[in-house]
Structure formats: structure tokens, C-alpha cells
Amino acid sequence: MSNVIKNASSVTGTTQLGVINKIYEELFTDSSGNVTTRYYRCFKADEAVAAGDLVGCGAGAIAEMYTTGTVGKTPAAAVEKGKIYGVAAAAVASGSYGFVICKGVMESVACEAGITEGSLLASSNSTAGRVTAHSTGSGTSDNIIGMALTATSSNTCTMYINLP
């Protein structure tokens, strides 16, 4: 069984581009020329999503996320790791398909101010589709989705994302 797909993670379209919930891999060359492996999966946007947006679901749509891949920007609330699908690799129109990065390095992720290199990251409590520095507290470790590789700059950062 192969986990390679002929579509690049930046491809979008109105027809399903890959198997929902199947994780594919790609060799990714970052802006510094470093080559790494990252993992991505197909999703269907239930609203317009920009490249770099964190996508997932609210409490009532968890079944759709895992059965049909239908997700949107994560709600402006502390969203648990299991309700987050990944970071959109490209802009996707409502009702269309695209890919999210679910494990590996992702550049230009939509994020809140105040993130520093090495910050643990979680979904934003104040802005839908963004990541923020994780605020520590008892029982909140299930919200951590990755680590910042750069500080916030122009509302974006580079992160290492690690989702199931």
C-alpha cells in the first residue's frame, strides 16, 4: 500500500483529490532550501479557507471531519487536537477540495502575536483559523498541536505540526 499521491499538496479542485483520511507524504523544500518529509491529507472546505489557516471542526461536526473530510477554519476557541485536521497548504474555495499538512514543517501559518521560537502551539482562543502560544494549565496538554520554529512576523510563523 503506497502513501504517495501524484497531486502536489498545493493542488485544489472541485473533485475529490485523494482518499479522505489517508495520509500521504511528500518531500518538501523550505524557503532556505532544506528538504524534509511532511505528511498531508485531503479535505473538503465547508467555507473559504486561506493558505496557512488551521482547519478542523467544532463539537458538532466531528463525524463529518473523519468520514467526508469536511472541515473549515478552527473555531475561535481552545480546540482539542483530535478536532484539528491540519494547516491548509493552499487557498480552497467553499465546497472544493484541497490538502492540509498534518505532520512536518509548515511555513506561513496564520498565527497570533506573541509566538516565539520554541513556543508550544494550540488553536487560537480569539481568532478562527489561527494558532497561538499554548497557555499551560492542568488538563490542557491535549490542545498542543506543534511547536513554533520562528517567532510571529506579519501574523504568520513557521511551525512543526504533529497531528494524528
Question: Explain this structure to me?
Answer:
This protein has one helix at 62-67, and strands at residues 24-29, 35-45, 54-56, 70-73, 84-88, 97-110, 120-123, 131-133, 146-148, 156-162. The relative contact order is 0.20. A hairpin with a 7-residue loop joins strand 9 and strand 10. It is mainly beta and 164 residues long. The longest helix is centred in the middle third of the chain and has 6 residues, at 62-67. It has one domain (24-162). The chain is 4% helix and 37% strand. The chain contains 1 helix and 10 strands; from the N terminus they run βββαβββββββ.
Q: What topology emerges from the helices and strands here?
A:
Layout: E1 24-29, E2 35-45, E3 54-56, H1 62-67, E4 70-73, E5 84-88, E6 97-110, E7 120-123, E8 131-133, E9 146-148, E10 156-162
Parallel strand pairs: 2-4
Antiparallel strand pairs: 1-2, 2-6, 3-4, 3-5, 5-6, 6-10, 7-8, 7-9, 9-10
Number of domains: 1
The backbone outline, from C-alpha atoms, is: globular
Instruction: Tell me the number of helical segments per DSSP (H or I, 4 or more residues long).
Output: 1
Largest sheet: 5 strands, mixed, barrel
Low-confidence stretches: none
Distance between the termini: 19 Å
β-strand amount: 35-45%
**What is the average per-residue confidence, as pLDDT, rounded to a whole number?**
89
- Which sequence of strands runs across the widest sheet? 2-4-3-5-6
Query: How would you spell out the order of helices and strands?
Result: EEEHEEEEEEE
Number of strands: 10
Alpha-carbon Rg, integer: 15 Å
Portion of residues within helices: under 10%
Which class best fits the helix and strand makeup? mainly beta
